[in-house]
Amino acid sequence: MNPALDSKRAPPIIRLTNSKTMHLSHPTRTFLLFTGSLVFLAIATGAAAPIVLKVDSRDVSRRVLHATLRIPAQPGPLTLIYPKWIPGEHGPSGPIVDLAGLKMTIAGQPVAWRRDPLENYAFQLDVPAGATAVDVSLDFLLPSDPNGFTQAASSSANLVVISWNTVLLYPKGPAANAIEFSTGLQLPPGWKYASALPPARESADGIEFAPVTLETLIDSPLAAGAHLRTFDLSAGARTPHRLNVVADSAAALEMKPEDLARFSKLVVEELALFGAHHYRKYDFLLTMSDQVAHFGLEHHESSDNRAPERMLIDEDLRKAWAGLLPHEMVHSWNGKYRRPADLATPDYHQPMKSELLWVYEGLTTYLGEVLTARSGLWTATNYLEHLALISAQLDHQRGRDWRPLADTAGAAHLLYYARPEGNSRRRNVDFYPEGELIWLEADVTIRERTQGKRSLDDFCQRFFGGENGPPRLVPYTLDDVLDVLNEVAPFDWRGFFQQRVYAVASRAPLGGIERGGWRLVYRDTPSDMLKNFEASTKGTDYSFSLGLSLKEDGGISDVIPGSPADRAGVGPGMKLLAVNNRRWKPELMRTAIKEARNAEAPVELLVENGDAFKTCRLDYRDGERYPHLERDASKPDRLMEIIKPRGR
Ligand SMILES: [Zn+2]
Fold first, then answer.
1. What is the largest CA-CA distance in the chain?
2. Ligand 1 centroid vs 331 CA: distance in angstroms?
3. Are strands 64-72 and 51-56 parallel, antiparallel or unpaired?
4. pLDDT digit string, tens, across residues 293-303
5. ∠511-515-519 over CA atoms, to 5°?
6. For 485-514, what is the HEC assignment?
7. Whole-angstrom Cα distance, residue 537 to residue 525?
8. Cα 5 to middle of ligand 1, angstroms
9. How far is ligand 1, taken at its centre, from the CA of residue 609, in Å?
């Protein structure tokens, strides 16, 4: 998943956010789970009849999906589960609060169900003698609030993204790759759709998909809408790669040829990095709407990317969202093909353990942003400015004084939903950006220790490559990661990660940047990436000077402990009204910070705290401070080596 650019819930200071005990000797699990093969399924299960799921999306503009299921059943007690632990979301986030209208019948007669009092995602019923199936009907109430991830808005008047886990129940017992689903869908008239799911036939009654396992179904969301275009990114390659774009307007689909060339180059660079792929075809689903939640969710053969409506036609938005598709595609290898064993649960009701997300998400963040630069979606300057920004944010994060990075990964399913206020004491999902810096340092370390002959690319080829083929899952443990790193470049990798991931570290890990030939400095002008970030989040970030960040309306989203703002009594959740006795606006604040350099007087802020007001005097004389990277000519420029394109 990629929540990083969710502007409404994560203002700048908060984006950077993290621990736990390391499992240092976990036996390697070698079992493989194959998905999507009907033949395999039939052998494994004795070919039980599939569950028939029919979804009607014609009421989507009134924010409801209707579904029916026919679930084969034996007489006796039966437990049906609504999917709870959602792959890629790393937590118990199945949106059950919006499950409504649940009715069950057997042979046309209503049957009573009871919700398990301890597991609220489970519904129990008794199947009478002679019965062979349970008929279920249900509605899923599509949310209208765009703040959040899959529990938030996924539709507008013109489009919908259907995550099949929201409209189904499955019998407790068999693994998700041993339950077969035959799925049909009705769309509003004139709408087109895209999905990795293979269609069997289409008629006036709708689309029928070829039967797949429950695992493949949940792994294959569908995007549909009145405005949809599909772009071919495979450039003659044997394996199809498609970019399917659905938007709220036809105008939003006008992709510039240079952008299309960059997305095609992205595919070339992803394949060059990993050396082999584990999908039969790859479909990007890109939903562009200001009415839906903005984030990305990974799948084996597709990715569900949701971004602002004007992402392809507004250069600032394009740059701000450039890293989304590269990140989600990396997950086809890191997250789907290879997955931490503790996250590779066999169904959707057994809890996941997420401590290794610093590999799953942290390494994906690193590789995704390197590929954003290698593909040309970002310039080298964009990449350097991005690194400067996350480094400075992480270095100013004070929650790191008590919380090791691994704890942010272990508590991911809590932190995804944390409010921004207080993030600099709490830490946020820091395993994304801090994972990026740690993996950058690992890459630089390999390059140093092998005199430039090897790099993290070699690790990726060994760990994620192999033979081209259909989706499969090969779980891993930390020991597996360390073993392959040691094959590429022998080193005390266990000690390396122990220090950076599992121990409390009060400073951000900047070794990759510094040994990569660059250093973090502060200047009095913001970088283009910071301006771009502020424009897309509508926030203003004074974290590196006064130590606070503001929302568009002056709401104080966070204050860094120990900063001038903190010492003056400013706190998160207050609202800034005036600066030096004038009504607050961003320009005025910047002027006040500049003038305070030479003035005797402090920066005076009038803040509202609920129904109380107070004036806070900030003793700060250092002027504006914004992070940049500066070249250190005493060392080889490894950052530029890292982002050099390698695909042909
Ligand atoms: Zn991710």
1. 89
2. 7
3. antiparallel
4. 999 999 999 99
5. 75
6. HHHHCCCCHHHHHHHHHHCCCCCCCCHHHH
7. 19
8. 12
9. 36
CA of 330 to the centre of ligand 1 (A): 8
Pairing of strands 170-171, 206-209: unpaired
**pLDDT single digits (tens) 493-518:** 999 999 999 999 999 999 999 999 99
Query: Residue 68 pLDDT > 80, yes or no?
Result: yes
Distance (Å, whole) CA 196 – CA 642: 32
The candidate with the shortest Cα–Cα distance to 56, out of 249, 191, 220, is: 191
How far apart are the CA of 4 and the centre of ligand 1, in A? 9
Please report which helix (H) or strand (E) contains residue 594, including its range.
helix 586-596
What is the Cα–Cα distance from 381 to 176, expressed in whole angstroms?
45
The residues placing their C-beta within 5 Å of ligand 1, an ion, are 1-2, 361
Residue 639, CA distances (Å) to 203, 430, 513, 597 in order: 53, 22, 7, 35
Q: How far is the CA of 543 from the centre of ligand 1 (A)?
A: 26
The per-residue pLDDT for range 251-303, each reduced to its tens digit, is: 999 999 999 999 999 999 999 999 999 999 999 999 999 999 999 999 999 99
Q: Please give the distance, rounded to the nearest whole angstrom, from the Cα atom of residue 2 to the centre of ligand 1.
A: 4
Residue 345 burial (CB count, 10 A) = 17
3-state SS track over 196-238: CCCEEEEECCEEEECCEEHHHHHCCCEEEECEEEEEECCCCCC
Report pTM: 0.93
Nearest to 333 by CA among 294, 291, 414, 275: 275
- 397 CA to centre of ligand 1 in angstroms: 22
Interval between CA 416 and ligand 1 midpoint (Å): 12
Cα of 363 vs centre of ligand 1, distance in Å, is 9
Q: How far is the CA of 644 from the centre of ligand 1 (A)?
A: 23
